[in-house]
Amino acid sequence: MKEIHSCAQLIELIQEIGFLPLLDSGIEGFSAEELVDEECRYVVFPDGGWDWPLWKWKGPVVTEGNCVYGKFFNGKAGFISMSWWSDFCNCRRSQHPYPEEGSIEEAILGTLRENGSTITRELRAACGFNGPKMRSKFDGYVTRLQSACYIVTEDFVYPVDKHGREYGWGWSLLTTPEQLYGREACQSQHTPQESFGLMYSHLHALLPQASDRQIERLIR
User: I want to staple 146 with a disulfide (CB 3.0 to 4.6 A). Which of 61, 64, 71, 155 is the partner?
Assistant: First the structure.
């Protein structure tokens, strides 16, 4: 795969290959972090400040790149082009049916539908996860719902300092894919097994260095 030097090139690559984890995927060379030019990687300055162009590109890629972003790959974040989303969603949801009524997961999705796009910490508060150690517990539920393709990241929201400059790592603005892309975008014409086969063949050709198990784990 070619080296990436800009946000536009990253968008182009995602459209070309369909799937791309943001950070280490366990498959050599298959992550945005490994593919970007050295100047676009994380760096810490002597004064304690930092810069990470790849991290800053996430927002524009999600909002302008015709792709979906979430924790889809073994609990880690990554991008999926819209051309592959319906099959990926079809396969994942067949393995993880919609949460049962009355479950915590169903309550989280209901809160998102009611309130619309919500940053993670506000969604956590709205769902009542305010006590000690509740943050990591809530994040676990959200990660599982993202992995099952019921929640996606719409954008990233950053705090602003007194000079009007954004700072920090940012917060994920969460929503459901149906709200963001429409119900039809989440429905495939294939059976779940057909969707799996299409993605498996594509990724097997794209990643000859990966084992069958590694490719299967990316999809399921």
Answer: 71
Q: In whole numbers, what is the pLDDT of the chain averaged over residues?
A: 94
Q: What are phi and psi of 151, to 5 degrees?
A: -135, 140
* Nearest C-alpha neighbor of 152 from the set 125, 172, 181, 175: 175
Cα 209 off chain centre by = 23
CA atoms of 90 and 211, how far apart (whole Å): 23
Query: 42: buried, middle or exposed (CB in 10 Å: 19+, 13-18, 0-12)?
Result: exposed
What is the CB neighbour count within 10 angstroms for residue 218?
A: 23
State mean pLDDT over 141-155.
98
Q: Where are the beta strands (DSSP E) in 128-170?
A: 152-157
Query: What is the pTM assigned to this prediction?
Result: 0.93
Q: Tell me the pLDDT tens digit for each residue of 50-71.
A: 789 999 999 999 999 999 999 9
Note the pLDDT of residue 87: 98
Q: Is the dihedral of CA 191, 199, 66, 24 positive or negative?
A: positive
Residue 4 forms beta bridges with which residues? 36
Cα–Cα distance measured from residue 211 to residue 52, given in angstroms and rounded to the nearest whole number: 31
- Measured N-to-C along each axis, helices 7-17 and 53-64 cross at an angle, to the nearest 10 degrees, of 60
